[in-house]
């Protein structure tokens, strides 16, 4: 039935798919240790701030005009960054960007999903994906990950064949589990996608590498498969490793043909001149901005080792293998009580993932000490 606006008698013709739905989002609370949305705990340093401020000031003088709609300058800078990070060189026209990789994903589903079509992913995975599906009227289908959160290749192939999705979303490292996918798995899914028949075309495979830079040395990026598969898109973000979540810049690399379809569905001038200026200034400082990635990886591995050495009543904690800047651990009979107990001690983590698990983002050494001290108290480790 039509919903009412809060506090008013006016009834609104709310779309049936969203009636009664709460807006997505983790609590934004003012506590000392924010370890709940996988942010980078290190703010940009003074040099980076000065560069960003200078470039934003220059952009401010042009704000009477719409921004560069094709933003090929930023796309070229992102292509250069990807080449230096992964060794894979793509042309600027093979790069796309938007306000966070959230919007990049929305563009993908606006372009390749839609009524009568399906998007397939493998749960547990990022909880925003079903919302992109809902908002593009695409049917959401979730295959299961194995007990250890890996994706079984045969099960994935079978799911693709059964569901005939137009879009397949793989996440590597996966949120909230931290699991990376071997390139062989991505390749097998790309091959299975070529066998799909959606209006005479194969499926698009999206590998969400939002946490890609945190992967272990030697784990390859799916960018390496781009040349082989014109139906593959690999998305990244400046929100995590780049410590730029507040700027809202996500991007992907794919074939030119795939990117050209995304240009059709974007809103005109979707990436503001201010955003473009911030992103380009930040990319000139990528070495400084990414400097903490190694430290965060080390802190992550230490956190995993610490958690694995903890026991309750002689039983060790479960801790998922992780290549991201967070760790999924558990399991707790009453995870909400543990979450609340940590919050009461100034440590905000995330209640997410399968029943009984909690996810903690990797913060500064001080954040992690506070987290460990609080957890020992709350969970009786
Ligand atoms: N993909 C995954 C797997 C994520 O965890 C997140 C953020 N939590 C995003 C995409 C979106 O990030 P952003 O929009 O900040 O780029």
UniProtKB/TrEMBL annotation:
Matches recorded under Pfam families: Aminotran_1_2 (PF00155)
Modified residues (N6-(pyridoxal phosphate)lysine): 240
UniProt domain Aminotransferase class I/classII large: residue ranges: 35-373
PROSITE patterns, per the entry: AA_TRANSFER_CLASS_2
Keyword Amino-acid biosynthesis tagged: yes
Known EC number: 2.6.1.9
GO BP terms, alphabetized: L-histidine biosynthetic process
Required cofactor(s): pyridoxal 5'-phosphate
Xref: InterPro entries: Aminotrans_II_pyridoxalP_BS, Aminotransferase_I/II_large, HisP_aminotrans, PyrdxlP-dep_Trfase, PyrdxlP-dep_Trfase_major, PyrdxlP-dep_Trfase_small
Catalytic activity: L-histidinol phosphate + 2-oxoglutarate = 3-(imidazol-4-yl)-2-oxopropyl phosphate + L-glutamate
Swiss-Prot/TrEMBL keywords: Amino-acid biosynthesis, Aminotransferase, Histidine biosynthesis, Pyridoxal phosphate, Transferase
Pathway(s) the chain acts in: Amino-acid biosynthesis; L-histidine biosynthesis; L-histidine from 5-phospho-alpha-D-ribose 1-diphosphate: step 7/9
Highest taxon of source: Bacteria
Molecular-function GO terms, alphabetical: histidinol-phosphate transaminase activity; pyridoxal phosphate binding
Assembly: Homodimer.
Family assignment from sequence similarity: Belongs to the class-II pyridoxal-phosphate-dependent aminotransferase family. Histidinol-phosphate aminotransferase subfamily.
Name of protein: Histidinol-phosphate aminotransferase
Gene: hisC
């Amino acid at each position: 039935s039509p919903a009412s606006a809060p506090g008013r008698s006016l009834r609104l013709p709310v779309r049936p798919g969203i009636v009664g739905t709460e807006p997505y989002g983790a609590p934004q609370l003012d506590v000392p240790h924010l370890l709940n949305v996988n942010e980078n705990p290190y703010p940009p340093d003074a040099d980076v701030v000065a560069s960003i401020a200078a470039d934003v000031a220059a952009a401010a003088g042009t704000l009477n005009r719409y921004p560069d709609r094709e933003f090929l300058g930023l796309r070229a800078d992102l292509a250069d960054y990807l080449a230096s990070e992964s060794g894979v060189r793509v042309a600027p026209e093979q790069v796309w960007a938007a306000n966070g990789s959230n919007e990049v994903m929305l563009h993908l589903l606006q372009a390749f999903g839609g009524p009568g079509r399906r998007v397939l992913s493998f749960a547990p995975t990022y909880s925003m994906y079903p919302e992109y599906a809902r908002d593009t009227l695409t049917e959401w289908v979730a295959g299961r990950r194995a007990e250890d959160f890996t994706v079984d290749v045969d099960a994935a192939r079978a799911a693709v064949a059964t569901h005939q999705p137009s879009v397949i979303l793989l996440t590597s490292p996966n949120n909230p589990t931290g699991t990376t996918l071997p390139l062989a798995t991505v390749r097998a899914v790309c091959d299975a996608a070529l066998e799909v028949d959606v209006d005479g075309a194969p499926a698009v495979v999206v590998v969400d590498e939002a946490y890609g830079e945190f992967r272990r040395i030697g784990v390859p990026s799916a960018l390496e498969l781009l040349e082989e598969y014109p139906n593959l898109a690999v998305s990244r973000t400046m929100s995590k490793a780049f410590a730029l979540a507040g700027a809202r810049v996500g991007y992907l690399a794919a074939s030119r043909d795939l990117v050209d379809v995304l240009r059709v569905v974007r809103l005109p001038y979707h990436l503001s001149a201010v955003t473009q200026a911030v992103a380009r200034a930040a990319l000139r400082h990528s070495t400084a901005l990414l400097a903490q990635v190694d430290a965060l990886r080390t802190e992550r591995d230490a956190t995993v080792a610490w958690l694995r050495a903890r026991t309750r009543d002689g039983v060790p904690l479960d801790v998922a293998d992780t290549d991201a800047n967070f760790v999924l651990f558990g399991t707790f009979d009453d995870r909400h009580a543990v979450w609340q107990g940590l919050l009461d001690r100034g440590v905000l983590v995330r209640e997410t993932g399968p029943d009984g698990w909690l996810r903690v983002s990797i913060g500064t050494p001080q954040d992690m000490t506070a987290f460990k001290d609080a957890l020992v108290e709350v969970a009786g480790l």
